[in-house]
Specification:
Layout (H helix, E strand, L loop, with lengths): L8 E5 L6 H10 L4 E5 L8 H7 L5 H8 L9 E4 L2 E4 L1 H11 L8 H27 L5 H13 L17 H11 L1 H8 L3 H5 L3 H12 L1 H6 L17
């Protein structure tokens, strides 16, 4: 991490969403994070939805303003004097400073970026069902489309790039197949039917979950992969 010896702080909501992939990458790479969690409150899933709903003031919007990132959405990372937002930036930064994260060549990095991009696509849609009343019937349709595409790169055993540890591509599949918010929540009773068509993806997600560093992370208090928002927890 060069001259910056502080721990990065990840600012995100108290759900899986767009923040959990960064946490999984940190777990694999051996990056210790600090966490700033905020209640899951938003005024829409897209820029258009948010513009229509109007400005809201919440704990996370106040925090972003205090960080000099007013109007920027979560996730946000603060690492010493470095402050930035956007999912891809957070994910790739944490991967780049992780001493145990697999070393990828440009071709492998392109595949990882492709997996992350597909996650962003379906994340926006499923979040829109929760936050902006999008048609819930679209989620199984597009989850099927994305998993059909990504399955072409999923091996029968091991991880996508044949490394001894999972990369971001593998962690994406764990999120796609096991995250409650937004996928389990929006697929609902239809989840089994969708995932049943993609045994290779489900199996890869489980292999990632069983990788020792990830398995330990799944027990961490700040792992929200399978949790509802704090307000909905009993």
């Amino acid at each position: 991490m060069g001259g910056n010896q502080s721990k990065p702080t990840l600012h995100y909501f108290d759900v899986s969403g767009r923040g959990e992939l960064t946490k999984l990458i940190a777990a694999v790479g051996g990056v210790e994070l600090d966490f700033a969690e905020y209640p899951f409150v938003a005024n829409g899933a897209s820029a258009a939805d948010k513009e229509k709903a109007g400005v809201i003031e919440t704990a996370h919007t106040k925090a972003a303003k205090e960080l000099g990132l007013e109007g920027c959405g979560l996730p946000i990372i603060v690492h010493g004097d470095l402050k930035f937002h956007q999912s891809f930036a957070c994910q790739n930064y944490i991967a780049s400073i992780g001493p145990k994260f697999p070393n990828l060549n440009p071709q492998q990095q392109a595949i990882d970026d492709m997996f992350m991009g597909n996650l962003e696509d379906i994340m926006g849609l499923a979040a829109g069902v929760i936050l902006s009343s999008y048609d819930g019937a679209l989620v199984p349709k597009y989850m099927t489309k994305i998993l059909t595409h990504l399955t072409k790169w999923i091996p029968e055993s091991g991880f996508v790039h044949g490394k001894s540890a999972p990369s971001a591509a593998d962690c994406v599949v764990l999120v796609l197949t096991q995250a409650l918010i937004p996928f389990g929540a929006t697929l609902g009773e239809g989840a089994g039917e969708v995932y049943g068509k993609f045994p290779a993806a489900v199996a890869l997600g489980q292999r990632v979950a069983e990788y020792p560093a990830v398995a330990a992370w799944l027990e961490h208090e700040h792992c929200n992969l399978k949790k509802p928002p704090v307000a909905a927890r009993s």
